[in-house]
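Progress report, Aim 2. The chain analyzed during this reporting quarter is listed below.
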Amino acid sequence: MTGYAPRVAQSRAPSLYRASHDPDGPATLSTTVIHALADCLGVDVTDSRVSLYDTVDPDALDALFRPRYNGTPRTGGTLSFVVNGHHVRVRGDGEILIEPPAHR
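Predicted structure tokens for the chain:
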């Protein structure tokens, strides 16, 4: 995507990556999650290691937290899944938390 600049902020603790999705912005929630994962992995967003399809359906993720039919936001709820060993938690308020695999 050209000109896409996600609203991503990394937490102070390097073990937990935080990002925030703007529901009024140009990107879908799944796109924001993909960009956050790429940032966390330190790879380009087009890298084949950054994919949700083996774990969660991106369209279903977008629909799950999409505003209700009357326009009110869905602020509750959480969905957790694992991508390449990274634990991803997406909240209804747009917060995305990514925890890298534990170093052994």
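Residues 1-5 have pLDDT under 50 and may be disordered. The chain is about 20% helix and 20% strand. These observations will guide the mutagenesis work planned for the next reporting period.
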